[in-house]
Amino acid sequence: MIGARHRRGCTIVATVFFTFAFLLFTSSTPAQLVKSVDSIGMTVSDMDRSLEFFTKVLSFEKISDVEVHGSEYEKLQGLFGLRMRVARMKLGDEVIELTQYLAPEGRPIPVEWRSHDHWFQHIAIVVSDMDKAYGHLRSHRVRHASTGPQTIPITNQAAAGIRAFYFKDPDGHNLEIIYFPAGKGDPRWQRNPEKLFLGIDHSAIVVSNTASSLKYYRDLLGLKLAGESMNYGTEQEHLNNVAGARLHISGLKAAAGPGIEFLEYLTPRDGRPAPKDTRSNDLWHWQTTLTTDNVAKAAEKLRRAKHRIVSPSVALLPEKILGFARGFLARDPDGHGLQLIEK
Question: Using CA atoms in the order 16, 20, 26, 27, what is the torsion angle rounded to 10 degrees?
């Protein structure tokens, strides 16, 4: 099991779910508030530049590109006077959503922010060959976040051979590529060896307290805890580029879609909280879109639990231009954005 303790050299990876985590959903369980992880979204400053990066560098396919404005979209994002260009892109079975705010423009990602600050979020993109993928990224002159690809050593038998590397997109969003050798990770990552970039395994978020985040994502929203680990050692430090990094990692899953992974830094403990005035047009804003059967019920449940909801009320979107009928934006205990939608 990933949650077993290992010697110092075992390290990494903020990415490993149990191979058979899907078994959590094969038996009859009560209806869950969250049905699936629909997409992972991020705010970008130049849509055309971001589209070129994700298509040419990472092999994503654009599936929609729309421009929207009006009172219901303002309500959805809790932001007056907005005009958004929203593009959805697919890799394998997973979807990301890029949003450029034509008005009002937000703030850039501060250069001094670090991987253990609580604003941190990334997506983990699965590759079939780490050396080829890293070489491909280098040929496109991507910005490093890790010092280079890191490999879990043989001392960690459950995850030995898994490799990972952090890098940045043109706006400075953190991204990860991860390689699962045979017998590790979800078996579907072994089915298309002819493709270099395969899909999204999960999105990772830094949390200040695992127990508090589990109360929110597991107990309130209904995601399932799929596995836990304690990750440390030189490989982990160089993957995150954080000296002395020691992490408690928890992987959660909905019935469908990529996983959500908690990264709690046990050391160092000086990670900074997300700015309280974060808005959806700020470039450090990410939003994980979750589907539910009843957004009004979901909003009421969050309000009763006294959790933050950004939208003043549920937004009713015209003609499902964004692919859903109604939704609202919330923030988890550490300020990470969550968009709950009803299709």
Answer: -90
